[in-house]
Design goal:
With 123 residues, this protein is an all-beta fold. The protein has no helices and 11 strands.
Length: 123
């Protein structure tokens, strides 16, 4: 049983950066991977990035490759998403997730989801 809580969202201007955090709690926290997704109104949930928990292999969605960086701190049960060069179209609710399944790019691979943190990119 894992509970995930995202933080770090907010309102930023285009071109600025933001760092999201996701803290996991629970006695049995031991996922295969942690991932970040986002969902804008009327859109499907989109894969952004994932990192395997044991060895730290990273995966990125094509839309954010080169701009976003996922990292983790196993001792703190925390995963981060550093987002650079944010654009208005990146406005969405950002979710972190933990899962034991593959492929890590798929929503269905994840069993636990945070409540989401809102990121709004606007002038």
């Amino acid at each position: 049983q894992s509970r995930l809580v995202e933080s770090g969202g907010g309102l930023v201007q285009p071109g600025e950066s933001l760092r999201l955090s996701c803290k996991a709690s629970g006695r049995t926290f031991s996922p295969y991977a942690m991932g970040w997704f986002r969902q804008a109104p009327g859109k499907e949930r989109e894969f952004l990035a994932a990192i395997t928990w044991n060895v730290g292999i990273t995966y990125y969605g094509n839309s954010v490759k080169g701009r976003f960086t996922i990292s983790k701190d196993n001792a703190k049960n925390t995963v981060y998403l550093k987002m650079n060069s944010l654009r208005p179209e990146n406005t969405a609710l950002y979710y972190c997730a933990a899962g034991m399944s593959r492929p890590v790019v798929a929503v269905a691979a994840y069993s636990y989801w945070g409540q989401g943190t809102q990121v709004t990119v606007s002038s």
